[in-house]
Amino acid sequence: MDSLLKQHKQDNPGYLFPDGRGYFGRFGGKFVPEILIPALEELEKHYQIAKSDPAFREERMKHLREYVGRPTPMTFNERMTDFYGTGRIYFKREDLCHTGAHKINNTVGQVLLAMRMGKKRIIAETGAGQHGVATATVCARFGLPCIVYMGAEDMRRQKLNVDRMRLLGAEVRSVESGSKTLKDATNEAIRDWVTNVEDTFYIIGSAVGPHPYPLMVRDFHDVIGLETESQCHELEGRNPDYILACVGGGSNAIGIFHRFIDKPEVKLIGLEAGGEGAATQRTAATFAKGQPGVLHGSLSFLLQTEQGQIALAHSISAGLDYPGVGPEHAHLFDTGRVSYHSVDDHEAMKAVKQCSRLEGIIPAIETAHAIAWLDKLMPQLSKDEFVVVNCSGRGDKDMGTISEYFYGNES
Ligand SMILES: *Cc1c(COP(=O)(O)O)cnc(C)c1O
C-alpha cells in the first residue's frame, strides 16, 4: 500500500495526502487537488458540529418523516418464504421512500448541511440519473439552484431522468469529454467545485469521495439500520441472522449494515454486480476483480486496466455500473466482517421477475442483485432463522430495460 501511495504521489505532484485522517483501515483519505483541502476541512468542521447538535438531527428527522415518508415499513414476504421453505424473509422497504429509493435520505441530509453552512449553490454529478433526481428534488424543496453534471452518453441513455431533473428546475450540463459517462461527469463537478468553492456545496451520491463524504453519507443513511433494528425486535424479538444489500458505491448497504457491525451474530452480505460474469471484462465486480487505487477522491478497490487506468464497468443495472466502491466497504472486506459476492445480470433479472410475481413488488434491478442471493442463501438456513433484504428501490425506473429483456420484440 505504501508503494502505491508513493507512486500516486509521484504521478500526481499537485495532490495532498493527509496522514491517517479519514482512513477506514488502509482505505479512504482525501485524494483531491490541494486547492480543495480547505473546503473539505471546512465541511468536516461544520459536519462535526452539526452532527452533535440535536437541533440539526431533529430537523433532518422531521424532513425524513414528513417529506421522505420515514419510517419505511418492514414487510414479511410470506409467499417468498414459502417458496424456499427454509427461514423467513423480510424486506426493508426503501423503495417506498419519496422518489422511489434510499438516495433521498442522503440528499436531504447534505442539503440541510449546505444551508447551515450558508452555501447558495448546489452541484452534483450523476451517472444513471438517480442521484441527480434526488438532488434536484431537495433543491426544489428548499429553493436552491442546482447544477447536475452528466456524461453526454448517459444523458442519451437516461433521457427520462434528464427530463425529470429539468422539470424539477435543475440545470443538467452535458459532459462531452472522455467516455462521456460518470467518471467524466465527476471530473467536471470537481472542476466546478474548485472554481466556485466559496458559495458552492457539492452533494455526493454514495458512500464514496474524499473524507468526510463516506462518513457523512453513511451517517445520513444510518436511519435504515436503526429502523431495521427496532422493527426486527418488534416482529421477531431479536436481531436478524442475515442482512443482504446490493453494493454500487455502497450507501444503501452501509446504511443498513452499520448499526450491526459490532453484533457478530448478524451476518452481513454485500452483493456487487457481476455483469456478464466476474471473470469477463464486462463486469462491475469491484471486490472480485479490482485492485486498490484512487477514484473520486479516495483510495479503495477499483476496477483497473492493465495500465492501471480506470476500467469501464458494466452491469445491466445503471446504479451498480460503477468501477469503485466506498472505502469503508473496502475496509470491511479487508477485515472480513462483511462478505461480498457478485451476482450477474441474468441472475438479477430472474430475481426481478420472481419477486414481482411472488410478492407484488417490482424491485429496482440494483435491488434484485441482493434478492437473487436468496437462491444461494436460503437452502442453507434452518426454519427459525430470518433474513432482511434491503429493498433499496423500486423498479419503475427500470421498466425500459425490463421490457426489452423479457418481452423484446413482442408487441
Ligand atoms: C443508486 C442505487 C443503488 C446503488 O447505490 P449504493 O450507493 O450502492 O446504494 C442501489 N439501489 C438503488 C435503487 C439505487 O438507486
What does this structure look like?
By secondary structure, the protein is α/β, with parallel strands linked by helices. The protein folds into two domains: 24-67 and 103-217, 3-Layer(aba) Sandwich (Rossmann fold), CATH 3.40.50.1100; 69-100 and 221-407, Rossmann fold. Helices cover 45% and strands 17% of the residues. It is built from 17 helices and 14 strands. The chain has helices at 2-11, 37-51, 54-68, 78-84, 103-116, 130-142, 152-157, 159-167, 182-195, 213-236, 251-257, 286-289, 327-335, 345-359, 365-372, 374-377, 399-407; strands at residues 23-24, 27-28, 74-76, 88-93, 121-126, 146-151, 171-175, 200-202, 242-246, 267-275, 291-295, 298-302, 338-344, 386-391. A six-stranded mixed sheet has the order 3-4-14-9-10-13, with helices on both faces. Strand 11 (291-295) and strand 12 (298-302) form a beta hairpin. Helix 3 crosses helix 5. The protein is globular, with a radius of gyration of 20 Å. Bound molecules: pyridoxal-5'-phosphate (PLP). Residues 101, 103, 130, 206, 246-253, 319-320, 364, 366-367, 392-393 line the site of pyridoxal-5'-phosphate (PLP).
